[in-house]
Amino acid sequence: MITNKEGSCMTSHHKFSLRSLLVGSALALLPVAFAPAAFAETVLDRGNVDDPESMDPHRTSTMAEGNLMRDLFLGLTAHDAAARTIPGAAESWDVSEDGKTYTFHLRADARWSDGSPVTAEDFVYSWRRVVMPETAAEYAYMLAPVVNAEDITAGKKKPEELGISAKDKLTLVVTLNAATPYFLDMLSHQSTYPVKRENVEAFGTDFTKPGNLVSNGAYKLAGFVPNDHITLEKNPEFYDAANVAIDKVNYYPTADNAAAVKRFEAGELDVNRDFPTEQTADLKAKFGDQVRVGPILGTYYYGFKTDKAPWDNPRLRQAISMLIDRDFLAKKVWQDTMLPAYSFVPPGIEGYTARAPDYADKDQIDREDEAEKILTELGYGPSSPLKMEIRFNTSDNNSNTAVAIQEMLRPFGIEVSLVNADTKSHYGLLEAKGNYDVARAAWYADYVDPENFLALCKTGTGNNYTQYSNAEYDGLLSKAAAAEPAERLKLLSDAEEIGVARDLCVMPLMYYSYHNLVSAKVGGWQENVMDIHPTRFLTLN
């Protein structure tokens, strides 16, 4: 093992000796056909749920996109193999006593994949681009802690007024509205990654295409065949390229979980995220430790279109929520690989008290009785049915969940129709604030803080698919942003009680566990509550 200057452990792939030097010299004289297998290109094949909607880090929002962006780009901070925050494009930083000013010192050896240096100005340009209304970044709100960010996104101020500046080529200064405890963790998210200005301006929206995309991460984009695969190749300009073991990684869209399992069994996939949970026992019997299941900071939820009748009525939303048996979903549909959820923020965040509705502790029969009374008061029942459409992105698990909920609601006069679409189309509709009744979605923590979940229900947030808007809720989030740590967590908890427990800005159904298939030949894979596994830290045996 060797240790880099940040103190993180890396596996050394180069051990030099006189003997190896002599053998290497002799082999150099042999024809290429006789080169040993050890010199063959190392290729990792990863299942990745679905194709990305975009390869522009500032316009991405799904997990599949996040996996790609982490391999292609590098933020000021990054995730290590265990999803801990480590230095990224910045090798160090200083923080003012009041916690409002961060001075980042960029790596002198940081390079774009075209060999040009990564500078502080690259981050200034990129962060301004994120918050500009024209960019329409789903995650523009991520930079809300930065001075003037929200006003710029709202069109009230100019991008040049954002609280970020380049002191010199390698020194970046960021000014915050208030001390923000999760700020450094947040900077590992793709919304804060740099893009190269010259390429964006030269190619416009085509700057993300193979041959045009210039990135600063461990890999560079080599090919993209829609609905087939995306190929990334090791970036020789990456500052830590010597410690990147995988030469090439192919990402395959694997929305069909059952087909992905067959590909894994055939050796066509080395890694795949998700599998049909009804097969969990059989898969464990067949693949043993290659089946990885464990807790993750993520919530599986349904969202009502809260600005559309009749779903704009919180009482109706509550009635439907009470009729859904989450224990059945978690235990039977998902085969005990999920946990029932009533709060949006999952357990596991130290110091935070999640808020759930009062019926969370009641028996399912009592919930159903209460829900039936509400439906009757609202004029719904078997003789006057409520029609409801559930939309979900294609996967066996999502389909089984929707069918189970359809059956749960049927006896109470709720006629549910199901509409499924591929992930790109499904989330495209939600991000465009399109028309629907109820839609399936999920949220995985971008950083370990309740604000990361609760910000989704803030008025105008890009990922606020349900269009929920409540001034009291927004006000609590704003107060929390400027509060001391203990008071901050209490204010966020109060906000969850209003927005989630009372109003169901989202309807939590289950807390996720990760369900991964990882080949025994893959090394460096560390389970973690973020389910983040950058390829740069993996090896192939």
Describe this protein's structure.
By secondary structure, this protein is α+β, with helices and mostly antiparallel strands. The protein is built from 16 helices and 21 strands. It has helices at 18-28, 63-72, 120-131, 149-153, 183-186, 197-203, 257-265, 280-287, 314-323, 326-333, 364-377, 396-409, 423-431, 451-454, 471-481, 485-502, and strands spanning 2-3, 9-10, 43-47, 77-79, 85-87, 90-95, 101-106, 164-168, 171-175, 219-225, 229-234, 248-252, 271-273, 291-304, 339-340, 386-393, 414-421, 438-444, 507-518, 522-523, 539-540. The strands form 5 sheets. Strands 3, 10, 11, 12, 13, 14, 15, 16, 17, 18 and 19 form an 11-stranded mixed sheet that branches. A 4-stranded antiparallel sheet has the order 6-7-9-8, covered by helices on one side. A hairpin with a 5-residue loop joins strand 6 (90-95) and strand 7. The protein is globular, with a radius of gyration of 24 Å.
Task: Describe the structure in brief.
With 541 residues, this protein is an alpha+beta fold. It is 28% helix and 21% strand. The chain has 16 helices and 21 strands.
Task: Report the structural category.
Answer: alpha+beta
How many strands in all?
A: 21
Tally of contiguous helical segments: 16
Overall body shape: globular
Terminal CA distance: 16 Å
Residue stretches low in confidence (pLDDT < 50, at least 5 long) are 1-38
SSE diagram, text form:
Elements: E1 2-3, E2 9-10, H1 18-28, E3 43-47, H2 63-72, E4 77-79, E5 85-87, E6 90-95, E7 101-106, H3 120-131, H4 149-153, E8 164-168, E9 171-175, H5 183-186, H6 197-203, E10 219-225, E11 229-234, E12 248-252, H7 257-265, E13 271-273, H8 280-287, E14 291-304, H9 314-323, H10 326-333, E15 339-340, H11 364-377, E16 386-393, H12 396-409, E17 414-421, H13 423-431, E18 438-444, H14 451-454, H15 471-481, H16 485-502, E19 507-518, E20 522-523, E21 539-540
Parallel strand pairs: 3-12, 3-13, 16-17, 16-18
Antiparallel strand pairs: 1-2, 4-5, 6-7, 7-9, 8-9, 10-11, 11-12, 13-19, 14-18, 14-19, 15-19, 20-21
Helix pairs in contact: 9-11, 15-16
